[in-house]
Amino acid sequence: MTSGSELIQGAGSQLAGFVASMLASPAHMVAGLAAALGVGLVVAGALTRTMLPLRWLAVGSNVGLLTYAVLQPSPITMIVSLSLLPINLFRAIEVTRLTRRVARAGVQADMAALWLRPHMKRRRLKAGRTLFTKGDPADRLYLLAEGELELADIGVPLLPGRIFGEVALFSPDHNRTHTVRCVTDCLILEIHESTVRQLFFQQPAFAFHLVQLLAQRLGEDVQRAQNSSKLER
């Protein structure tokens, strides 16, 4: 029966033999380092929770294991690494670009309107016309291109360049929260809710700006409610 010490000695001799073979030539040494790097990055990737570093760790592990498979011919390892490398590289670049676009959207939020315009329909309204009334069902988002609008129920003006109608699209009841009336003749651009949702998931700049708008408008509503309660007191 083999003792524990003999097993340890056997494992030690095998490890020593492996190290010796790796040090026998520069190619063996590089192959050993590449294999260790590849395995290490696989382990690191398994412990990573965010997508961007996970993808780049996967690319690194594929490169390391592919290098090992070339220097120490291993057909299966080579086939697997060659299959996964382009997929992981494509996804890593895609996630990197997406992250940068979201970062730029935070600085250039006004550019979000550019995503809307190609999908919007023009609509002209005369002064005094009501676009929608508080409580109406909401299925469109609007951009004021020309003229002046007013939130008639609270007396707040809307000027050209203003995106509006977004709060109701994301509210539980899908109803308009204000009445919008034309102060002057207006040119309004409108886009259907289904297209808005597609853009929200496809265009980070638009999604980022829309989230900012929702937070800003809700904050304004809270502030108006607080000011109104103070005046009533």
What does this structure look like?
It comes from Ramlibacter pinisoli. The chain crosses the membrane at residues 27-47, 54-70, 76-93. One of its GO terms (molecular function) is DNA-binding transcription factor activity. Keywords: Membrane, Transmembrane, Transmembrane helix. The protein has 233 residues and is of the alpha+beta class. The chain has 2 domains: 4-107, no CATH class; 110-232, Sandwich (Jelly Rolls), CATH 2.60.120.10. Helices cover 62% and strands 14% of the residues. The chain contains 8 helices and 8 strands; from the N terminus they run H-H-H-H-H-E-E-E-E-E-E-H-E-E-H-H. The strands form 2 sheets. A 4-stranded antiparallel beta sheet has the order 1-8-3-6. A 4-stranded antiparallel beta sheet has the order 2-7-4-5, with no helix packed on it. The longest helix is centred in the middle third of the chain and has 33 residues, at 75-107. The radius of gyration is 30 Å and the shape is elongated. The N and C termini lie far apart (92 Å). The relative contact order is 0.10. Mean pLDDT is 79; it is low at 105-109.
Topology:
Blueprint (H helix, E strand, L loop, with lengths): L3 H20 L2 H21 L4 H21 L3 H33 L4 H5 L4 E5 L4 E3 L7 E7 L2 E3 L4 E3 L4 E2 L1 H5 L9 E3 L3 E7 H10 L1 H29 L1
Antiparallel strand pairs: 1-8, 2-7, 3-6, 3-8, 4-5, 4-7
Helix pairs in contact: 2-3, 3-4, 4-8, 7-8
